[in-house]
Every structure is written in C-alpha cells, then in structure tokens.
Amino acid sequence: MSTRGATKEGIISTGIKMFIEHGFDKVTINQICQEINVTKTAFYYYFKSKDDLISEFFTVDNLLSNEDLIHILSASDYANQAMKAMEIYINHIVRSGLELTKEYYRVLMRNEIIPLDKGKSTVLGSIVPTLLQKAIDAGQLKNPSSAEDLHDSMCCIANGVCLHWVIEGGAFNPLELSRKRFENLLIVN
C-alpha cells in the first residue's frame, strides 16, 4: 500500500460507494484504504474520520459544476436563479439516497454541525445572496427582508425539507416542496 495515487476525491468516491453498498457503520477506514490501495496515513492526510469524509461529500462547494451554473443562468429572472442555486444542494441530497443522507444528518447531529450553514464561505453562499439582492433591486420579490435574511431562511427551508424527506422515508419530492416553500418565503412577483 502507498499514498501514490491517493487523492481526496478518490477516497471520497470509494468511501461513499462502500457506505452505500454496505452501510456506514459496517465500513471501516481500513476497508476503504484496502479498497483504494492506500495507507491509513493517506486517509488521515485528508480526513480525520469517516464522519469527516461524509461531511466533505455533502459540502456545498463540492456540488457546483459548469452544468449547474448554466442551469442557474437559464432562469429568466434573479429570484428563480437564486432558487435554482439552492436546489443544487437538494438535488445532491436526493441523488445520494435516503440511507446516505440519514447517516449524514446523524453525523451532523453527533458533531453539532449546521448543514448548509450560510456563515461558512461557499460559492453558493455568495451567489445566492447576490442573486437575491438583484431580485430585490429589480422588484421581483415582495418580501421586504434583506437578501442575507432571505438567504438564511432559504438555508433553513432546504435543511428542513431534506430532513423531513429523510424522516418520511422519501415519501415526497423534496425539490417540489422546497420550490413551493422558497416561493412562499420570497413572495415572487
């Protein structure tokens, strides 16, 4: 085993694949290292624990692709662009599946971490308030709150909808519900 070829992305993708196949609690760091043929030192170079690995997988900055940017910009107005940007996070949650998302929320609660915390520096964390401010300036929103307060509320909505989706066992479409909640919050013209 070596650290040659060990990349953060490779460790994440291998770990996530194994978590999905076998369950988070049944996969050890040793097994991840054996699967990707790296030392534990290589694993610990990038991650403190399995909790750290799963948290990194769900990190907002890792979600934004060129396709996502094109999708955001395809919306006809700033308010819809802001909602599409927030939906990137929700899409990632849905694509990850119920079991992995359940474990993610367990990790967050165990480590007392706020998901989609707007206080952290993220690409989406800077795009959404900017788009909301442009929507306010263009008269596209009826809600008189500041762009920062609206963004904070949108983060709370996204987290609440995703957690509700997990608790309900995937019984509804979280994108549809979050879109409805975002529109209610923003009071889109």
UniProtKB/TrEMBL annotation:
<feature type="DNA-binding region" description="H-T-H motif">
    <location>
        <begin position="28"/>
        <end position="47"/>
    </location>
</feature>
<dbReference type="InterPro" id="IPR023772">
    <property type="entry name" value="DNA-bd_HTH_TetR-type_CS"/>
</dbReference>
<protein>
    <submittedName>
        <fullName>DNA-binding transcriptional regulator YbjK</fullName>
    </submittedName>
</protein>
<dbReference type="InterPro" id="IPR001647">
    <property type="entry name" value="HTH_TetR"/>
</dbReference>
<dbReference type="InterPro" id="IPR009057">
    <property type="entry name" value="Homeodomain-like_sf"/>
</dbReference>
<dbReference type="InterPro" id="IPR050624">
    <property type="entry name" value="HTH-type_Tx_Regulator"/>
</dbReference>
<keyword id="KW-0238">DNA-binding</keyword>
<feature type="domain" description="HTH tetR-type">
    <location>
        <begin position="5"/>
        <end position="65"/>
    </location>
</feature>
<dbReference type="Pfam" id="PF00440">
    <property type="entry name" value="TetR_N"/>
</dbReference>
<dbReference type="GO" id="GO:0003677">
    <property type="term" value="F:DNA binding"/>
</dbReference>
